[in-house]
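Exercise 7. Given the encoded structure of a 406-residue chain, write a plausible sequence.
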């Protein structure tokens, strides 16, 4: 049953906004996309316009703001809202630096003595090129912050690394991070925390390369399945205690507790060893719906408990289910192509850039368009259902990783 509260979601997290719409009377999304209008009201305020967002929250008596956008977190929306007595579920910019700035995050991991690939951080092109000449390959070259464009590349030789590094500096990147590529099975462990207590949510198996069999370009993610059954319990305990809890404890000691969703990207390098890649300040588009599918707890109450400071008093764990979900990011090489049969599929849809034409048909845009998520009692059944739905919506220019459903 819905309560009468009003929620503001800052960032275009389709899956979360839709989830909140099932719990409360009114959901606003800033800035939102057109296809969210079926369950939320989109407001024309930029994610990083903290003053404008605060004014809107005050004028519209918003009960809770949830910042999912890295731009909003980086603009310190949490501190501004807290200073004006508006309840917000988000970390401050200072506490989230290790999850937003990849160079800071790598140094942070090093100080925590967490296993992480060998890395270098460079502010000058000549120094970066000197490092690349003597490095072992493959390497991952990336910019300091995630963005919507091509922000990282897995390079197998010096010439590839040189060209991409020069490209990053030429487009104005202040820092470039270069690290050894970690071979193994990649996963994310997500937790919810008030800065003092952290509770695990679930594990997510990640697909980050654009082509089947981990070929093509490396991205922040093109698909996922939940839970990740491949991770041994002792590895999960070690990551939770020695990476996440250690990170949160370090921030507490600095008097900058981290409040919100925190994810850590890990590579299982062998059955009993792992290495940590980076942190995430919220669910990513490609795995958000799959994660939400396993949570049976009322998320509004969880987020409010964290923001109000009584999370540790009310929660020892989260109620989850034993469902399995698999998600696939659908891209398009072409714009304005009709995406057929979306009304016929069983998978849940999280739109990113798709829209509707004057005939109310769903049409594509160039780049990331939508995420399909199938949920079932078994992973094999969820994958089979997702495969059927992907075949059903086939359109000109459509691209996705077909081996996610294998």
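Solution.
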């Amino acid at each position: 049953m819905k309560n009468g509260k009003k929620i503001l979601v800052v960032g275009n997290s389709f899956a979360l906004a839709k989830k909140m719409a099932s719990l409360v009377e009114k959901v606003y999304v800033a800035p939102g996309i057109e296809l969210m209008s079926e369950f939320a009201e989109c407001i024309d305020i930029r994610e990083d316009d903290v003053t404008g967002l605060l004014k809107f929250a005050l004028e519209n008596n918003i009960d809770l703001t949830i910042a999912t956008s890295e731009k909003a977190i980086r603009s310190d929306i949490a501190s501004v809202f807290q200073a004006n007595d508006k309840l917000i579920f988000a970390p401050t910019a200072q506490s989230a630096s290790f999850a937003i700035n990849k160079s800071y995050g790598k140094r942070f991991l090093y100080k925590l003595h967490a296993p992480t690939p060998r890395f270098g951080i460079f502010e000058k092109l000549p120094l970066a090129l000197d490092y690349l000449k003597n490095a072992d390959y493959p390497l991952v070259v990336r910019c300091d912050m995630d963005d919507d464009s091509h922000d990282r590349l897995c390079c197998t030789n010096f010439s590839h690394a040189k060209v991409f590094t020069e490209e990053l500096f030429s487009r104005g990147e202040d820092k470039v991070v270069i690290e050894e590529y970690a071979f193994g099975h990649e996963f994310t462990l997500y937790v919810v925390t008030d800065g003092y207590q952290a509770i695990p949510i679930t594990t997510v198996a990640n697909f980050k390369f654009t082509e089947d069999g981990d070929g093509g370009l490396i991205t922040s993610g093109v698909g996922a399945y939940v839970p990740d059954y491949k991770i041994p319990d002792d590895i999960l305990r070690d990551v939770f205690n020695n990476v996440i809890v250690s990170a949160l404890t370090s921030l507490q000691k600095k008097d900058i507790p981290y409040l919100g969703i925190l994810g850590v990207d890990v590579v299982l390098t062998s059955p009993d060893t792992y290495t940590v890649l980076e942190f995430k300040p919220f669910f990513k588009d490609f795995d958000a719906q799959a994660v939400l599918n396993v949570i049976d707890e009322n998320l509004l109450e969880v987020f409010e408990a964290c923001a109000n400071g009584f999370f540790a008093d009310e929660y020892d764990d989260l109620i989850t289910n034993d469902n399995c979900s698999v998600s696939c990011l659908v891209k398009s090489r072409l714009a304005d192509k009709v995406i057929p049969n979306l009304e016929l599929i069983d998978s849940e849809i999280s739109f990113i850039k798709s829209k509707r034409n004057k005939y109310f048909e769903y049409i594509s845009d160039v780049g990331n368009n939508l995420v399909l998520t199938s949920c079932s009692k078994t992973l094999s059944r969820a994958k089979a259902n997702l495969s059927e739905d992907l075949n059903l919506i086939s359109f000109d220019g459509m691209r996705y990783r077909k081996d996610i459903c294998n």
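Remark. The radius of gyration is 21 Å. Students should compare their own answers with the one above.
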